[in-house]
């Protein structure tokens, strides 16, 4: 669609004015016909009295023929004539209105005067000097502006403020509550004329309102304040719960408010397009955009009123931080972790493609690269939403244009396609090519879009000539400049980040980085950072006075990582041999610093980041090319430093990071050897590794934790069917937490792999008893640490079901893991080479791993250690994830869902129409539940979560034949994975005898006596059973809150009564809703429906041997144990309902061993006295039940 094909689509046109702006500042070159005024040379106009002017202050007389005199001077006839004149001029209706208004004013004045009179004492006499003012209501309103300002908004409850009530100053600092209420000291500029003029500072809605002003300075103030607030939100806030960001609020809540409630990103895009000619507003808007999409890597330092040292921090994607810890395991795969998912709440991803007319099966087209390339060229600027939808997705047959209302265009996709934001950024950079700030923030913003849309956009940018030309000119200009200003350094860093992300996502690196300018920029950055060291080595002759700031060192590590990524991806291996002397010099300086015990790591603290990046690059090159040309001296220095670090083991974060890089390069070096001939003093090296292992174990045992902040990071959005393309956070804070929780495991994993390598080459045997004994002692420490890890990771996995699971289909909600646990999981895998045979360890890996190779290793170990076959399941799991990735823009390198979550959820998935049958998974789960791994596997299931999701699915699905498709094997799995676990059957000793309900017994006197006897024995036995050994969790824990659970219970009862979901599954769910593990309101709701409870009782029967409740339609299907399904005994309301329900049971209820009757009798016997039982029995219609109740009362129960 072209611009000429019709009117522009105003709904999605960013250039249109969406705000209530009444005036724009535009240059108007049109001629002005109004003559310019003349001015006096003195600069001021002359003062004139009004008598000298031609102007008059009197009102013009429209009708001079009839002049109305004052009323006091008029006679009665004149008054009548004036009235007649006014009626003719104004009309009768207007005159009547004026009279009524005058009367109302008089009445109001009388009321005010009366109230004033009543307030005065009866003997009140005014003073001669007293001034008396008589004001009516209107007069009082005129003077209200003189009163102190009052808030016009509704006061919130004391406690935590809502996000829209937070107030900030212009620097982005949050104003405390005391500052908001203290009116003695204030800064006048922070008070505004909004709804809260009495409070200093601005809320975010007020700032956005101010940004709509037609006065540019006000827009500039708002657009400078907004990025300050966004950046400040990532600052660490100390609290009793640990470090927090986002002003102490939850990150999900803050991100949701910024991205959804305020919808900030499109607004910022509008400001960028609207104020391209206002440089100051443009720079602030670009900075705001860069923080929203990528962060702020410029280490911005705000003003510090406390005169304390400023703590530098940067905001950026967490993938950049994780890469330092994961490069050893999976290379650059971590950058493909988080695909972008559709925000379609009602989408059924597994809906079969043969369903005609289904609008809920949108998939991205496979050729997104051409779509992004067309977006860069501005093809879609004037497309409607429906036309844009057809360009992005494969629409199903029968799709109608009105269905587009269900589709929400992602904000970044909207900016990229409808508003061609990248092309506009390139034009802005071209216009302001000499402005460093514009170049910086535009480049960072492009990096943000690259990180979000990944490979398709990177390939499109590689083919987009304006971007390619600007990239080359920008790189060349940075290389040629000699400026040492901070802005130039930050621009260099932004370009290096751009090179890094292009290197990660671009398919054809050779065609893009073939020129030498990119390599020159990378090596020039390293040279600038280590200028003094290279001058000492006589490698360079010019000693530049360059300030080695923290930002320059960080950008140097980014530059080195670009070459590392090229080597990992197979583009080219640059050994950086010219910098090997620099590494040796750094090793020497670290050794010298170790001699001073007071400050052992001074040099290391200064240059840790670039030095470790350089060492990791060398180790990567060694691992990829065993025939390297690195001198042996560098590896000898590595061993010497490892001995030093063993002795000086009070490691800081920098020291631990340095240790990891040394261990890594040492392992890659010895792994490249085929013999031990070149190694000296092997036994001493192994002893050093044992000593390091002990030190790391002591460090981990004392602080084995996963920081809450790392778990609370939104690795993907907390919305059904949506993912997070870029996860932004305070990088320095996250590094500190990773160093504390993950880095020691990285070191330990490398040590373990090195020990295994020595052992495989026969370094020690039985004759070397010292090494054997030390290894046995280490094994005990390794295993104890692993057991603690499994317990902690298991709780993490269960918590993910509540916060990190997402909707796939009707009854399929699968948990998604988080990418921070790989070092822990790799440690568990490594321990199997030391004899650690734990199925729980392997289930931990399967539950939380995000790496296909690690999952495959765990399945192989399960097969060999526990004789379990997983043929075909891994392929099905891969195909399942590959299918899901069609709904996102991410790569297929990493799984989307957890393997164990998939294995335990997919087999019990129920749907009326699905492209996946999960037959292999059903068979495998049935096999595992019949093996020795049954108890271990059930320990990793989350029955309460499955319960809530089944309730949601049944309440939201309208298909009447949905539950008719459940197979017998699925019933068996549902019983094992849901009802048995949540019903607490594993807590009781059950008999293996086969029981069955006999429906063919004829009622005789003898049989009735037997039935009564069986019931009496069963009731006495059941009431003598001890309470549950393990606490059964409340069902409300699996819903958002108690009100939500009550609502879903009501909905389930309504659907069951309508006949839509009549099934043994629904009967079991309703019985759980009425049990003691539910809420009292749900129990009342279920038990108050007499016909419902009688129907449930007819569909179930209880086995008096095991007290398990079975279905009459599926005899082998159990819905739980009576001890769990019983009602709360302390609920008077439920007890009254049961007493009333007791009158409705018949003899057949006893004959069929009705569990509802059994639960009712237990409740009645527990809560009634003998006289009350006799009274109740007189109202019972069933003779058999009456006889049973009387006998139980005589027994004294």
Entry summary:
Residues 165-232 form the RPAP1 C-terminal domain. This protein is mostly helical. Among the domains are: 161-262, no CATH class; 310-345 and 363-395 and 408-573, no CATH class; 575-670 and 682-713 and 741-751; 768-913, no CATH class; 1008-1195.
Helix content: 40-55%
Instruction: Characterize the largest beta sheet: strand count, sense, and whether it forms a barrel.
Output: 3 strands, antiparallel
Strand order of the largest sheet: 7-8-9
Q: Give the overall shape, derived from the CA principal axes.
A: flat
How much strand? under 5%
What is the radius of gyration computed over CA atoms, rounded to a whole number of angstroms? 39 Å
Which structural category fits the helices and strands?
mainly alpha
Number of helical regions = 49
Alpha carbon gap, first and last residue: 83 Å
- Contiguous runs where pLDDT drops below 50 for at least 5 residues: 1-44, 57-64, 182-186, 301-310, 352-360, 987-994
Number of E-type strands:
9
The averaged pLDDT comes out at 79
